[in-house]
Specification:
The chain is of the alpha/beta class. The protein has helices at about 20-30, 30-40, 70-75, 105-110, 140-155, 165-180, 190, 195-200, 240-245, 255-265, 315-325, 340-345, 360-370, 405-415, 450-460; strands spanning about 15-20, 50-55, 60-65, 90-95, 180-185, 210-215, 220-225, 230-235, 275-285, 295, 305, 330-335, 350-355, 375-380, 395, 425, 430, 440-445. β10 (about 295) and β11 form a beta hairpin.
Amino acid sequence: MTLTFAPAGSDALPLHVLEPAGLEAWLEDQPEATRAWVAANGFQADLGSALMIPGPDGRPVAGLMGYGTEAARRRGRFALAGAVGRLGQGPWRIANNLPGGRIEEEALGWLLAGYRFARYAGRVPEMPQLVAPEGVDAARIETLAASEALIRDLVNTPASDMGPEELEAVARSLATQFGAAIEVTTGDALLEQNFPMIHAVGRASPRAPRLIDLRWGARGPRLTLVGKGVCFDTGGLNLKSGASMGLMKKDMGGAANVLGLARSIMALDLPVQLRVLIPAVENSVSGSAFRPQDILTSRKGLTVEINNTDAEGRLVLADALALADEEKPDLLLSMATLTGAARVAVGPDLAPFYTGDEAFAAALSRASGPAADPVWRMPFWDPYEEKIEPGIADLDNAPAGGMAGSITAALFLRRFVTDTPRYAHFDIYSWQPAPATARPKGGLGQGPRAILAALPEVLGL
């Protein structure tokens, strides 16, 4: 599957993208045969509609695509993508200026409409190709599409083929592709290198836990990305129900998203010193599994009382964040499919994030809309700190009460970032529960495009 634009020199057919209010004016300049054809087909330029215009020999000579109203477009993303499959193969070139000036978003959506996960069954249908619209940075848009496809592929792949070792292989492949350095600490070496909580969470599985550490770039500010790589989560001894376990192949969505973001950063050659840390584990059940009421000592030296083995993601992230914090990067970001509470709070479409950095929060929010990558700021609410303090250890990994679960998880992680002023945590879903334009049901990137767009302002690139 290649999500790319048609070559610039292609003999492309013109595609007229029209709002309902502009259809009549366009028709006035068309020959009678075209006006009759549009009327006979009932084309009204509604969002998601498309119509081929035939020439005298019956072959298409142009196309129409409905862009709907601004109100209709505000209810979703990638407005054009919903109609791409209704066109012939083309290739096509957009012949007019799009109302609203969202050409980059629509160009990306067109490419993403061609994504399918067909590793195990089916085939990827050939989608109509588009010539990169004038003024669009085609290489950048293709990079964003390829990075999103990587995220989706990783999340969609079942745990049988995407365990810690396979996740490491993907990171190694990216390192080779972009000339990055990579080190991996595996199995009992995690204890020797002082990553006790990563080891504790992963030790019950025959698939050895590991910490993946990728570095790229030798100039510019230091950016560190930490992604939760729980390749499958049974819940451990606090075993999940079958229904709750059904989607746990996606519990490495944080790792997938930081790898997708890292891929974009490296492909676009941003002037940063990039580091990617991924604690990769499988939270399984065996005689060596960590237990409720165990107390673990973290890399940071903080002790953690285990009140639910199903709150394991924050444990592996904590050791990785502690390592990242030792280097005091200019910006530290963590991404994880961490809590169901975040889904209750904002649903599946928004990526909630936590930060105490006002400049980062503002830049990210501004970048989010144009990047078609919605985010929503949540609070590091200091009065809830006492909820994560159990009394017989420094921290509680699963506070009782059931309230503010996403906030308390974020506060837990913040305890491991003490020397890095600029830190943000993303509690993402990384899953599209029902098909939408340019987003088939399945794995999804949430946050990387908004972060990428915000980095120049945030880091002064």
